[in-house]
Amino acid sequence: MKTVVCVVVLFACVAAAQTTINVPADQPTIQAGIDAAQNGDTVMVAPGTYFENINFHGKSITVTSDNNPDETIIDGGQLDPVVTFASGEGRGAILKQFTLTHGLAGAGNLSGQLSGGGITICCGSSPIIAANKIVDNTACSSGGGIFTTGSAPLIRGNVMARNSQQGCAGGGGAGIASDSGTGLQIFGNAIVNNLASGNGGGIMINGTGVTLVQNNLVRGNVLLGVAPTRGGGIYSSGTYSLIMLQNVIGDNLADQGGGVYMNIGTGITQLLVNNTMANNDATEQGSALYIAGRTNNGTLVNNLLVGRPTETAVFCDPTITNVSPQFRTNDGFSYGGGLGYDGNCANVAGINGNISSDPLISGVENDDFRLRPGSPAMDTGTNAAPRLPPTDFQGKVRIYDGTGDGTRIVDMGAYEFEPPN
Predict the structure, then answer these.
(1) CA-to-CA distance for 130 and 96, rounded, in angstroms?
(2) What does pLDDT average to in each consecutive run of 10 residues of the chain (421 residues)?
(3) What confidence score (pLDDT) does residue 8 get?
(4) How does pLDDT run across 88-101, given as a tens digit for each residue?
(5) Is 188 exposed, middle or buried (0-12, 13-18, 19+ CB in 10 A)?
(6) Which of 55, 280, 297, 354 is deepest in the core (most CB within 10 A)?
(7) So where are the chain's domains?
(8) Is 255 left (phi over 0), alpha (psi -120 to 50) or beta?
(9) Coil vs helix vs strand at 119
(10) pLDDT of residue 17
(11) Side by side, which strands form the sheet with 54-55?
(12) How far apart are the C-alpha atoms of 62 and 168, rounded to whole Å?
């Protein structure tokens, strides 16, 4: 029950406590719980499978399971997106600790929505999506897992797996797709084994404002569309101020940019710091990274960019400009005789601390991209990298004296080397 205090002098009643609405004890369905809730309330969902398609309807409420996401499942039944935010919800709208599955954004669904099979977010909404498993959802156009347009959600600590985008031309982003808006944050997610027929097997960021992509694992995502497909792991185009910090991007597949494809527009800035891209497959160019457009507006610092055998690791497309991106203290390397850098960045090795050397990572075959003792990427980054995180991808202290020479210098890539105890 909600405790209410009436203030006689002001002739007003003020809610003094928040309510927890239990599903199914208090309300039979999650949507009924949402409909009964007021701002600040919590809808607490007991373990079980709920065949629903829910909508927050603009409310600042928390909808959460009372256990872990494996035991509390919202099944969209291939009828519509599983969850919708379309009424300007803010950070007070929180969805956490569910498995969201069997959502459909495509022909024949109830709403006619073509994007965002698992979650669709629009119309100036900025909810928090945290600690969910978003799996086996489908979108025709964009965002098999999550689609956001004109909005700025915080997407944190989720697993997005086995989602697909297929059926509509020009789409993509089987895990996450974003179209317009500013302030999107994608932090600490595992975006794995998704399939798209457009661009961006894991993430597609298209025409969006300031976007932060940090500490994500983007692995095993595949593009199988009309060539050339672009950005097996991540695709960005027209993005203003894309900031990619300390992501691990491996085992993704595309024609151009097996790991990441960036198309940088006029007046746009894109910053990549301490990312590891390795073992991605590009059938044409850019096993780790393909940079197109106004390449001179890109800045890359402390990144580990490793190509598959015989493939070029980093390709900078000279079609628009012959000016290279700004490379500082990166390692671009490919095994089996492939080039570390090519295109208008072919000559960056040996300049500004950039190298093209075998980084001695632990095991490409088993996706262990940590540095081994003696790696040339150890203690050879720059501590002056913009927005350098204080901890590495595993949460360890970011700047560690790995060589034991008494000087603490950051390593290249997402992992900071620490010798075994």
Answers:
(1) 5
(2) 39 59 98 98 98 98 94 98 98 98 93 95 97 98 96 97 91 93 93 96 88 97 93 90 96 98 90 97 97 95 97 97 96 95 97 97 79 95 97 94 92 90 62
(3) 38
(4) 999 999 999 999 99
(5) middle
(6) 280
(7) 23-221, 227-421
(8) alpha
(9) strand
(10) 66
(11) 54-55, 83-85, 119-122, 146-149, 176-179, 203-206, 234-237, 260-264, 289-293, 314-316, 341-343
(12) 34
Name which of 263, 130, 156 is nearest 214 in CA terms: 156
Q: pLDDT for 309-323, tens place per residue?
A: 999 999 999 999 999
CA gyration radius, the chain: 23
Check residue 3 and give its pLDDT.
40
As a whole number of angstroms, the distance between CA 353 and CA 359 comes to 14
Q: Are 82 and 73 in contact (CB under 8 A)?
A: no
Residue 243's φ and ψ, nearest 5 degrees, are -120, 115
Contacts (Cβ under 8 Å, ≥6 apart) of 55:
31, 34, 83, 84, 85, 86
Q: In this predicted structure, what is the pLDDT of residue 403? A: 86
The alpha carbon dihedral of 108, 114, 115, 121 has a sign of: negative
Nearest to 83 by CA among 100, 60, 58: 100
CA dist list (Å): 49 to 82, 178, 389, 410, 411: 13, 29, 39, 46, 45
Buried b (16+ CB within 10 A) or exposed e, 306-330: bbbeebbbbbbbbebeeebbbbbbb
Tokens of 4: 């209410």
